[in-house]
Every structure is written in C-alpha cells, then in structure tokens.
Amino acid sequence: MTCVASLRPMLRSLLATLAMIVCFFCQFATAQSYTISGFVEDAKSGEKLIGANIYDVKSFKGTTSNVYGFYSLTLPTGVYTISASFVGYTGLERSFDLKNDTTFTFKMGGALDLDAVEITATQSERIQDESQMSVIEIPIQTIEKIPTLLGEKDVLKALQLLPGVQSGSEGSSGLYVRGGGPDQNLILLDGVPVYNASHLFGFFSVFNTDAINSVELIKGGFPAHYGGRLSSVVDIRMKEGNMNEFHASGSTGLVASKLTIEGPIVKDKASFIVSGRRTYIDILARPTIKQQFKQGGGSGGAGYYFYDLNGKVNWKISDKDRIYLSSYFGDDNFYFNLEDEYDLGTSKAIHDNMGASLGWGNMTTALRYNRVINKKLFANLSATYSRYNFAVGQTSESYSIPADPVYAQDIAFEYKSGIYDWSGRLDFDYIPSPNHYIKFGAGDIYHTFVPGITVYNGSTGSATDIDTTFGAKPVYAHEYFAYVEDDFKLGARLKINLGLHFSGFLTSKNNYKSLQPRASARYLINEHLSVKASYAQMQQYIHLLTNGTIGLPTDLWVPSTSKVKPEDSRQVALGVAQTFREKYEISIEGYYKTMSNLIEYKEGAGFFTTGTSWEDQIEFGRGWSYGAEFFLQKKVGKTSGWIGYTLSWTNRQFDNLNFGKPFPYRYDRRHDISIVFLQEINKRIDFAATWVYGTGNAVSLPVEKYLAPVSLLGGFYGGEIEYYENRNGYRMAAYHRLDVGFNFHKEKKYWKRTWSVGVYNAYSRKNPFFLYFREEYKLDKNGNGYLEKQLVSVSLFPIIPYISYSFEF
Amino acid sequence: MQLKRYTIGFVLLLSLAACETVVDIDLPERESKLTLNALFGPDSIMNVSLYPSKEALESGNYLAIENATITVSGTDGQVATTNKLGIDVFTLESVYKLAIKAKAGVVYTITASAEGYAPVVSVTSIPEPVDIVRVDTGTVFTDGYEEGQLSITLTDPSGIGNLYELKFYVLIYYPDTLDGKLIYYPTTQEAYAYSRNNDFFNSDYSSELIFTDELFDGKTYTALVNYYNEFKDGGGDTTIVTNYLSSYLVTELRTLSTDYFAFKSSYSRYQFSNGDPFAQPVQVYDNIDGGFGIFAGFNASHDTLQLTQGIFPSPLD
Lengths: 809, 317
What we know:
The complex is a heterodimer of chains A (about 800) and B (about 325). Chain A is mostly beta strands and about 800 residues long. In chain A, about 5% of the residues lie in helices and about 60% in strands.
C-alpha cells in the first residue's frame, strides 16, 4: 500500500502536465467550428466498426473511428457531405448543414460482393495516408479462408504469413517479429494481455476466430499508448454481440467443435456473445482407452483436451455511456489415472489408485466503461484481470484389504507456476480539429509472479505425515505508465505522430523508470505515394524464460529484479507506401533495431534444470536486427491476397555464450516469403492457397569430438565431448510448404452451411523440426560391423488433409 | 522428474508420427588434434592420457597415442619427461606417468608432441589447501525417510576466490596376518553424499558437490550434505563391517584450480543436457593450446571420523 501511496503524487502531476498539453492544442481549434460526432456500426448487428474513415468529400478532411467505434470531426460552419467507409461495407454519405454540434451514428450496410467497395474506397483510407507505418490489419473474414493445419482457423498462424513475422518451428503459433523473441509481443484480447497464447505446445492458438472482430499487428513505430514489450503489438478485439437479432454459428472439424451464440438482451440497448470451442478426441477415444486398461487388469483412463470460452456483454446505458464486460477462459489438460488391485498372497490385497495431470491455461476479464464527455472528448475506463498458470501433479493412494496401516499411503505432489495481473487504466481520445487526434492516459498493472512452487503432502502408515510447500517465493510488482500522443497534420503533405510513453516497474527492492519517445511521420509525394519514417524506444519489465524451440507451457514469466534488468529496444524504420489502380497497396520498409539486457538460458540449462534459482540459470546480452520488407496486397475484388518478402539479419551477443563472440539468433531467417491467394470462384465456392518459404533455422552442430578424462581422481568416467566451434553456426534445410483449401457455401432457407476441405503441406515437404545424431550399425565390404554416425532430420507433418463443416443462422 | 517424463513422452509420440531423413552435411574437414587429459591432486604422480580427436561424424574407437613425448616442468625446478605408455591401475586407461608431485604455488607447464600431430601445451597450478575445521554427523527426515546428514565446517581465506569440492570415502581396514604378525589392508571406497541446497552447489547433479566461496568469503561456513544410511557400512558386506570391522568416514575438502572448476562445472552441464535436442549445447571448457582436453589440479585436506567400532582394532584406534 505504501508503494501505491507513493505513486499518487507522481501520477497526479503527470496527469496535470498532460492536461496542460491538451489545453495547448485547444488553441488550434477554429473559433466558429462545430463538431459532428457519434459512432460507426454495422447496420444489422450493431457491431462497432474500428478504423472506419469519416471525411468531408470536398476537402478530404476527416478522421477515423477509434477502437470503440467513436468518431469526432470538427469543421467550420457550412454545408458538408460526409462520407463513411469501411472495407467490406457499402459506403454511406450524408449531408450536414453545420450550424451546431451534431451527433450522428453511421449504420453501415454490408456487401457480400467486395467489388462494391471499389465505389467507396477513397484516398483517405489508403496505406499512403496513414502516419503510422509497420501496421497491418487482416480482416477476420480473410483469416477464416486461409487453409491451416487440420483446418483449425488460427489468428496467429495468419499473422505468421506477414513480412517481418517468423513462425519459429514447424506448426508453432509463436511470433518472432523483426528479430525479437516470443515474449516480446504484447498480445491483447480486448485490451487485456494474454501470456500464453498457445494450445498443445504451440500447434494451435487460443483465439477462437468466431468470437473475434478485428486483428491488428504493429511491428514498429509504436504509438505511445502501447508499452511493455519490445517487438510487436497484436491487438485483438472481440465481437460485441448482435444488438438486434439472435444468431448462432458453429463448426466441427478434425480437432475441435465450436459454437457461438449472440443476440440482444434488450434490443438496441444490450447484447451478448458467447463462443466456445473444445477438442473431443479424448471423449471419442475414452471407451477404447478404458478397454485397454481393463485388458491390463486395472481400470482407468487417459487423454488430452483443450477448450476456449469467450463471453461478452455490452450495455448501451445512453448515447454517451456504455459498459462492456468480456471474459476469456481456456485450458489445456493432459490426464491419466489408474486403479489396480493385486493379491499379496497372504489373504491380503493391495489397492492402488494413481493419478497424474499436466495442465495450463489463461483467464482474462475486462470491465470497461466508455463515456462521450463532449463532442471532442471520449474516455474509456478499464479494470482488468489476467492470469496464466501451469500445474503438474501426481497423486498416489494405496491401502490394503483388509486394512493394515503398514500398507496405507496417501501422497499428493503438485508443482505450479503462473502470473496474475490486476490492472486499471484511463484513456482519453481528444479530437479538437481534423488536424489533431490526441490520445493520453495512465494506468497501473499489479503483477504477482509465481516462478515455481512445489506443494507436497503425504502420509504413510509407518512414517511421519508431511505437508510442505517449497520453491521460489511469489514476487509482487506494480507496472505503471502514462502517455500522451498527437497525430497531427502540418500542411497538406506532412502528417506526424509524436508521443511520449513513461513507464515504471516497482517492487519491494527496485523502482525502474523509463521515458520512451515515439515518433512516426509520412510525407505525401503525390496522391498515391508517400514516404514514411518512424522511431520507437520500448522497455520491457517482464521476461519469458523459454526453451524457445517448441512452445512449452513450462515457459516461465519472471520479473525484472536487482540482477535482471529491464530489456529495452530502439527501432528506426524508413519506408514507402503506394496505392495503385485503387486496388493494390504496396509498401517497402527497412528497419534497424537494437535490443539490450536480453536473457537466455545458460549453456545446458533449460526447463529441465531443477532446483537452482531461475536468476542463476540465465545469461545477459544484447541483440540487433535489420532488414527490409516488401508487401504487396490486394484487399478488394474476387481475387485478393498478398505477397510478402523479408530479407533480414538477426544476431545476439552474450559475454558468457559462444565465448563472447556474436552469433546468429536461432530464428535468424535470411529470406522469408509468403504468398496468400484468395479466389472467389462464384457465390458458392471460394479457393485459397498459401505458399511459404523460409531459410532454415540456425542450429548448433559439433564439428569435432574428443575423449573426456577417465580418472577416478577427478571423478569423471570418460565419454565423448562434442566441440561446437560456433553457436547456431549451421543452417537446417530451408522450410517451404503449400496449403490449399476450398470452401463450399450453400444458402438454405433459414441458415447457411459451408464445407471446408483442403490439405496442409500439399506436396508433403519434409521440413525439419529438429536435428539429432544417431549411430547406425552397418557392415563394411568385408562383412565387418561398424557404427556409422548420422545426422538425422526429424520432420513433423507430411501432407495432412482436413475437412470441416460450419453453419450459421 | 514428472514433467520431463511427460515432455519426452510427448516428443516421442510426435516422433512416431514424424519422418526421419538422414542429412548430408558438408562439414569442413578437420585435421586430427591431440587430446591431452591430466587431472592431478597433491602428492600423487601425474597420469596423462593422450588420444587423437575425431571429426564429428567419424566412427570407430579411440586408440591411445603411443611414442609421444610428454614433458611436465614446474617453476620449482621439477621436470619430468616420458615417452612410455603405461596403465592406470585404477581406471585401466593407457596413460603416460610422470613423477611430479604437485605443490601449491608452483606453475606447471605440460607439452606433448607426437608424430603426425601438431604439438600442444598447457599451463596450470594448484591452490593452497583449506583445512576442515570440523565434521559432525546427524540424521534428518526427508520425504518421510531417515537419512544421515553431515555438517562440514571450514574457514575460507579472505579475498582469494576459492573453489571447492567435497568428496567422501569410507575407509575400512581388513585385518590379516603375515609371518605371524597382524597387518591391515586398507580399502577405500567412494561414498555418495548429495545436497538439497542447489542454490549453494554449482552443479545440476545433486551428488556433485562443487561450490564457490561467493557466499562466505573470509568467513567460517558449514555445508550440509545428506547421505543414505548404507553409506556407513561402506556399501559392502554390511554384516561384516558392522559386527567385526571398524570403518571411517574420510571427508576430503578439495580446493580446485580455476581450470579444474571450469572444466568440471561445464562438463557436468554438458552431460546433463547431452542428448536433449531442445537444449542449447554446452561448450565444455578446455585449456590445451593447439588441441583439446584439460590439464588441471586440486589441493586437499582431510578429516577422518569413525563410523563403526568393530571387534578387530584398526591402525587408527
């Protein structure tokens, strides 16, 4: 509490400073101006449209709707035709005779035929107009068409198809953005961080696409309202629920089934959406597994499942006030239990009951209150909770029949770790004029880190009962922040976003602070072409101790301490963006990023290294990454998709690794190509194909070997030692893969169904997952046996077909 | 550990569905180098093994290099040279034996040359010994079972940066007669103690008790280790030992050279993670210029504690 009390004066003076800055910008508002404000939403469902463009058709002065669909446009008194446009919707235009402040909500009608968007696509929404660079938004409808592993639509896998984003290893949903690690991505679900976004060791992500409204990836030029991670922001917004009608949709595939229900609680006032997904292989396999146990003489079961459950309620209290409550629950669970009985042969039998489980999962909850304070000022107050935990446990119970305390035993063991966050934040959007869009706000996250504790209790018939807990103590910390930014125009060609993000990390022993400038700018060369530049400084106070090769639930989130300093990065980017023929967008960006205070496991250490404090298992170093990204995309029309190419270098240097010499990062990928092709063949059939190519991951291979000492004196007992000249000095074979899929739609009277079929890895490329050495017994030409050492590449997924059925009504 | 079992199980399950392909790798050709290993203590002769190194994919056994010339010289004037390959009586390894008894404060240089190989050289020394103040025994309950516990007290010299290792032996004197006189045959068997305090000891193996003086530089410190009760009986014929013979616990406190410590801690990390395709590989420390291996030593002090009193007396009674 003392820590919180000491924060208040600092936050108060910071907010006062922010208010003064706001007032400074107020003077730029013209004397006789009025404001049109309101929301942009889907006419049928009432879903808010994020990033819709609202502008005057003559002067092109305009604005965009914020993440809650709110817009505000201040213009001098006069008559205007205001246009609202959003990809996938028929544009709207409306006339205003502006003599006073006006409230108007644009209700956008949908369009199945994306060609219709051509009519309304204008200068204002094109890539060259935005001051921010290194941002890509993928429509959820596109994500749902992309063929994937086992047909399970995946947000993170779709992001891996973008330039500057690497996937790590085969099948993994980890994101490695511009040379950064998987812990350097701020993954937000309705503004709440998600700490482990993977099911089944990274093969699937936790995001159910049926519940999602929008996905945005920011790789650089981070606006000041984001902070806490070095390399990317993945901002995922949930749907709000249909305000007017009940709808349901669902699907069933090879891995899981999904069901989503949404509708009004009070028409046009309050709505809900609930969406769930669960695997069912454990249920299907249960009778077979039970039979197997029975044949072995016992009884029991084993299996694995994961589930996701998203829910949201939104309530429009008035035209100015709104409340949202959204939650996500998700878990993975391996389980095993066995019950057995055996005869001791002395008129006594022993009954054994054993169980084991391995589980991990996330839970997030967000309560948000929006208030339109006045026509130019919008506020959002959020209170959120997020937790990620992991637990592995084992129970064992034995007793004899008839009962004899000598044979009685009851033992339970559980190891658990996790991170728990409570947070609150207040954000303002202030739009004093079309030339300024100001954001400011502040907040605090109260972290509880549990790096790993073991709970053991046991009683045996003949020994003392034990009930003990040991391991790393929880660590508590406040991560506080405040920011201000302004997106403003200087003349007709230059648009700049300038911001400042201040953050700190307070524990019982440390108070780290950081001031992070952010800047991005665009200069319009002509109507279709602009040059962009950005600079961003980022700080990260929490770290992920990860094995890194495959996404494991044992990955541990740990705080900055006296020994472990916060990580920081500086990134500059320069690029050009162009739209041509009103359909194609092309961007070319170059970037250079430096990172410091990075952590890596010591040589030989990893999640299997038990007992030692985590702080003593890591090394500290730095990294740098640079490269160029090319991105060509077509968003509209029957044929759409994109081509992305990245040329990059990513290196690390740690004093105590690789003898202090720089070495390539494991996921240093020189060339990375993604081609996504979407074709609407007719109203009922669409086709999608993706092809990816990447330079092989860097791995460490020994070049020589020698004998270890054999000496009782020294206590060693021989064996070979492999000599690694350079860490990550060898490249696995290149990775490439083709996925294709078809969707067959049919409109029924009251509902619509879709069959999706496709293949993952269509030409069954044996992409390497990991390498290892083995010895194979062979015969030479004289028939003498010898052991030949071979380097073996293990590949995971050959060609895998998928099929799924979905419906909606 | 349960977690390791689950994860390895999962990877094995994946491997069943996975494909394996032999990879043709183009590793640059390497000339074989001399691998020299010599670990030595105070007042014992130096046994030096010499083998060729191999390329990573090379198969076949390692054969000791014959007719090499090994020379060890110390700054105290001691010099020994040999080119005769012998046998280490304990390990049965082929070794070159040099009659140099290592002392603290002396810098030793070893050179080795053999036909067809580039010569190698290394330099090391051993630190001063640190005395054991006291060794006490006790018992403790761990996971419901009774175990023995040893408390080893030492006083660390200030400002030196000492590196330590604890070793334990059970010493039993077997009596016999020769020409009518009573004689004793001492046998020494290494006994295994382990630590539950992994924040203190610098090894992934709980039975490898190496540690630094970082936490107690210049102070008196007591290290705690546990042992199984069978330890007391030397692990041999417990009835004979308990009833008839006296046994002694010999605690050896080694002070390690930095080379020895670096090699031992990196090699134990290497062994721990070897074979794990998901762990970062360990580069094992070596100090042989022009080749591979380790030339390193330690000093030691001892404490002897009687474990059992047998019917037959022992020379230590």
